[in-house]
Each structure stands twice: as C-alpha cells, then as structure tokens.
Amino acid sequence: MPNRLATSLSPYLRQHQENPVDWYEWGAEAFELASRLDRPVFLSVGYSSCHWCHVMAHESFEDSEVAQVLNQRFVSIKLDREERPDVDDAYMTAVQVATGRGGWPMTCFLTPQKQPFFAGTYFPKEDRGPYPGFLTLLLSIDHAWKTQRAELVSSAASLADHLASALSGSNLAPVELSPALFEASVQHAHEEFDHENGGMGTAPKFPPHTALAFLEAFSASPFGPQSYREMAREMVLTTLESMAKGGIHDHVAGGFHRYSTDERWLLPHFEKMLYDNAQLLGAYSRAARRWPDDPRTRGFRSVATRLVEWLETEMTGPEGLFYSALDADSEGEEGRHVVWSCAEIRSLLGDRAEAFLTAYQAREAGNYLDEATRKLTGHNVLHLAEWTEEFAPELAQLHAARKRRPQPLTDDKAIASWNGMMIAALVDFGDLERAEACAQTWHQAISELGYVPRHLTRGQASGLGFLDDVAHLADGFFALATTTQKPEWRARAEDLTARMIDLFEDPAGGFFFTSTQHETLFGRTKPPTDGACPCPNGVALRCLRLQGETDRYRRGLAAFSGWMARFPGATESLLLEAMIDLSDR
C-alpha cells in the first residue's frame, strides 16, 4: 500500500511511495509527532537523478527489517533537496562539519527541535569491515537516545550554534574593486587549469560554468595585459572543445551529463541536469559567436543545436516549461540506456559500423568501468578524438534504437531558477520562440498566484521561490526584453526585481537566500560563492544593474568585495559583475 509520499509533487519523493518506511514530508506534522512520541527524527535527503540515493533506497528503504526499526523507533522524513535547498544547505553544512565532506544521499538524525546530532551520507545496510551499516547505525542511535540523551541534546545544541555561525557567513572586510582582482581570478584559474584536457583540477571533473562565463567576458574586456586575455580565451576554448568531444557530451541524443569521473571527460555520471545544460548552451552559443574563425569552435553551433533538440524532445512539458533532470539509472543500472557494445553498433550500422566504432573510440572489451569493481563492462561511452559531424545519420540510427530501450525517469519538476537560466540561454542561442513560451507560462502563473513558486509541476505550484528563483526568472525576462525590444518583458523583469528587493534584500548590501516569508532554521544565509549554479547574489546584482538600481548594485558589490579578493576561484559571478561595473565607469 502506498505511503503518504504518493501524493507529493516531487518525483523523488514519489519514488519512495512504495517503501515500507512510514515516511513523512518535511513539516510541522513530523516534528510534532516526534516530540509527542519522544523519538529522534531521521532525515534522508536526496534527489531524483542521484545514483547513490537509489542504491541506499534499494538496500535499506525497501527492506522490511530496516523499515521496522525506523517505524518503531524514529520519525522518518524524506526530503527532495531541489524542492528545499534551504533545508538541504543547513544540514549539508552539518554533514561537512561532522565528516569533512558532503554528498547525497544525506543521512541526518535530529532532535524533535530540528537540531542535528549525527550527520553522514550513504550507508550500506550491512556492516562493511570497520564501517557500520545503516541497520547498526539505527540501533546505536536508538540506544544512545534512550541512555545518553543529555549528551546527545547537548551535542545537538552545540552543533546548531555552530551551524548558525557557519551559515551566516563571515563578514570579510571590504576591499577596493580594481582590475587586479580580475587578473588574480584569471591567474588562479590558470593555476588550476588542466592544459591537456581542459577544465579545472583532476578527477572527478565538473563543467566549470561560472569560470567559463567570467573568462569569456574577461577575454573581451579592457582589463589586464593582452597575455592574460589570451590566456582566458585559451582556457575557455580548450575546455569547451574537450567537453564537446568527450563522453560527458551525449553524442547520440544531445546535451551533457552531470560530470566526468575521470580527468578526460570520458566516463560520466549519467544524470542530465537542466541547470548544467542551460549554462553550457549559453557557453557554446557565445563562444561560437565570439570566435567564429577559431577552428576549435567549428562544432560549437552544432553542439548547441543538438542540445536544444534534446531539450525539445526530452525536457519540455506541454506548457513550454522545462523539466529538471533525467535519471542516471535505468533497468536498475547506471548508464544502461546510454552505453553500447560493439556488437550492438554493428547490428545497427552495418557497413558503416567499423568507421563509426573507430571515430567514437569503442572497444570490444568496452571502455566503461563499473564504478564499484573498476572492471570493464563490455560497454562503451562514445567519445571523439577529433571533432567530426560525418556520422550524423548513424547517430540518428542509434538514437532511434536507444528510444526503444527502457528509459530513465524524468524529473518533471519545472524549477523556477533553472527555467530562468534556460530562458536566458535560449535567448543567447537565438531561439526566442521557445524562450518566450516558457517565460509566458511563468509570468501567467506568478500573476495568478501572487508570488513566485519554487516549482510548477503537473499544473500545480509548490513552495515559495528562493532568491535564485526570483533572480534567474528576472534575468531571463531582462534577456528577452533586451533582444525582443518588447516593453512587456522589461516591465515584468522590473516587477520581479522589485519583489526581490522587497523580500530578500539585506540593507547592508546583497540579498539573503530565503525571504522574509520563509521558514528560518539556523539563520538566513547570504550566499557569496558559486557552485554548480551561479551565486544567487551574482545574478541578483545583475538584475539590479539592468534595473538601473546603481546605488544598491554598488552597495552589494562592496559587501562581497572581501570575498572576491579572498576567494577569486569561487566568486566568478560576482567578479563578472564587478568587471562590468568598472568597465562602464
């Protein structure tokens, strides 16, 4: 019998509706029950396309023995990190404090007052050598809750105080914004840069979205010596070319996987996220336009076009909204719907198979390693040594065959911030019709609701939008206004920016991530750094600049200037705005 997650709008939560665990969603009901029953709260956080979230679900949450312990001794909450990034951020900070690392699935145990006293990530069901399994962990925590309550509560209170301090951020002294900051960021990127394969650092390797955007803009700026501008251009082009040829790029269907497990962009984790593809669509579109005569960009427009085709066929809902993600797994196996054996390719391509196998570097033994055993699986991730568009018909044949395979889950949440990113990227690409269709649906929903929701799913709104949601939608509307010259998009962008100021502004400069209407956990954060997505404050400041709110804009830049000076490799979104401001003066 389905549990109470069956009615959730989150596909991730609905994945757990048949679990024997008596799951609750995040909310007062669960914590009031925990207080009444005098039980600790088990909080499990993940997202729909997370491979290891699926593994822990299969091993533990579908297991009757584990479920019995959870149901009798805990109150269990399942949370989608994409729905509640504020809750995820708070408790992920606890995980990082406790373990020195982070990741999903997130495993936390809380008091009924929401204070964490134990935090970790993935646990197998059974013990593995010296490492406790999840069942052992549950029994140990239950025993400690009953016999060492005072120590646990004291530890939880201390950790909560630490979280409140960590989440509020340190107030770094402001510095003068000058071209030296931009040169320092370029130098930092160059020191981290993989000159052979592109990207930053070694494996695992993620697309360096905000670094690419900053370096591309710096390359055309008046700042720094010419050698630095050329250095910036080389880093952008080398990275984009390497990713386009690599296995992180889905050569068959278009678009990009989340990240590469190796330094060469060959072996990806196979989930596809809307936010990655929005940022890469913008990056490839701008690079093709800025450097049309560079031979490395010859395939960039094709990469962008195929990405938009994938967006249309696999990621667009009936009202023009864009879905959040495609799962990494199908048939219970990561990447099964993406990889190919040489025999499969020969059976599909016939006489063209050998040339295709050579070009896309497939091997009889496979090139795809099982992540757990590190053994070859006999399957291949397609990737190119040299860019070619010779095999478009063969790729179309493989695509048709792939559609006949069992497909991965689509997370059909249309998240406001990620849709705003894609609207702006489509404007960069030149697909105004698709961008306007999405933007119009968001405008209509906001007008009817009276607020910006976190996401729209199956015709229903869910949650209050966070700073990134309002800022990215406003940014997308500004992009439409600039390109289409339609006054209604300007008015709508200005309305969203005014809402952002009213609900999120810190009078000292910049914006809080949560509004005055959101739940407060351990304080309101004011994010200064980039992650997989741009720093929300960088996007918010861009909206202020486009709105003409010069005083607020420069007050925000000053508030984050110390962060830019201290962490030039983590504040590229803010540095980009500072560079634009100085060049305009």
Strand content: 5-15%
* CATH topology label of the largest domain: Glycosyltransferase
Output the radius of gyration: 24 Å
What's the average pLDDT?
A: 95
Distance between the termini: 65 Å
Overview of the molecule:
This protein is α+β, with helices and mostly antiparallel strands and 585 residues long. It folds into 2 domains: 165 residues, Glutaredoxin, CATH 3.40.30.10; 248 residues, Glycosyltransferase, CATH 1.50.10.20. Helices cover 51% and strands 9% of the residues. Strands 1-3-2-4-5 form a 5-stranded mixed β-sheet, with helices on both faces. Strand 4 and strand 5 form a beta hairpin. The chain is globular, with a radius of gyration of 24 Å. The model has no long low-confidence stretch (mean pLDDT 95).
Key attributes of the depicted protein:
585 residues, alpha+beta, Glycosyltransferase, 2 domains, five-stranded mixed sheet, 51% helix
Concise account of the structure shown:
The protein is an alpha+beta fold and 585 residues long.
Layout of SSEs?
Layout: H1 11-14, E1 23-24, H2 28-37, E2 41-46, H3 51-61, H4 64-73, E3 75-80, H5 85-99, E4 106-110, E5 116-120, H6 134-147, H7 149-168, H8 179-192, H9 209-219, H10 226-245, E6 259-260, E7 268-269, E8 272-273, H11 274-290, H12 300-314, E9 325-326, E10 329-330, E11 333-334, H13 342-349, H14 353-359, H15 392-403, E12 410-411, E13 414-415, H16 416-429, H17 432-449, E14 453-457, E15 460-464, H18 467-484, H19 487-504, H20 536-547, H21 550-566, H22 572-584
Parallel strand pairs: 1-3, 2-3
Antiparallel strand pairs: 2-4, 4-5, 6-7, 8-9, 9-12, 10-11, 13-14, 14-15
